[in-house]
UniProtKB/TrEMBL annotation:
This is MarR family transcriptional regulator. Transmembrane segments: none annotated. Residues 14-149 form the HTH marR-type domain. It comes from Streptomyces formicae. PANTHER family: HTH-TYPE TRANSCRIPTIONAL REPRESSOR YETL, TRANSCRIPTIONAL REGULATOR, MARR FAMILY. It holds the Pfam family MarR_2.
Length: 159
């Protein structure tokens, strides 16, 4: 006899909403990981670190990078090692703190990031951006900001 699934109506709203976030994050991340791996030999964890670096005009202290990425500090360190091994990032001693290093994308890292970011957008468009309207995206952004602000102990700000 086939197993039945719990219908949405049987699941409390908060549980369904949480499950939906987990499901969407898992499915979309796996999709991006496959696309980036196939097109650029670039795991999604590497892409995430590159995303933070690409969004900063200046080199990023390794500790800040570790606090920003959705990876553990040891994972960030391993990713930076791998990226440096491929010539995609540099590590330089910090001018502000002799005990720390700063990480920056190389020219090759910026080039690869731009290509990988286009791949990410293309692979997500049909299953995310093209399905959602501006109000949907704003609502998701408001939820993300609210959850993140609570984690960081701050105010959620305007929705």
């Amino acid at each position: 006899m086939p197993q039945r699934k719990i219908a949405q109506a049987e699941m409390p709203l908060a549980d369904h909403a949480f499950y939906g976030l987990v499901w969407a994050g898992t499915v979309l991340t796996e999709r991006v990981d496959r696309a980036l791996g196939k097109a650029h030999d670039l795991p999604v964890s590497w892409f995430e670190v590159m995303l933070w670096l690409a969004s900063s005009p200046d080199p990023v202290p390794a500790s800040v990078l570790g606090n920003s990425a959705m990876l553990s500090r040891s994972q960030v360190s391993r990713v930076v090692d791998a990226l440096q091994g491929r010539g995609l990032v540099t590590r330089t001693p910090s001018a502000r703190d002799a005990r720390s290093v700063e990480v920056a994308l190389t020219a090759e890292g910026r080039r690869l990031f731009a290509e990988a970011d286009a791949t990410r957008r293309d692979c997500l468009a049909p299953v995310f951006a093209d399905l959602l309207d501006r109000a949907d995206l704003e609502a998701l952004s408001a939820v993300w900001r609210k959850l993140k602000a609570h984690k960081e102990g701050g105010a959620a700000g305007p929705a």
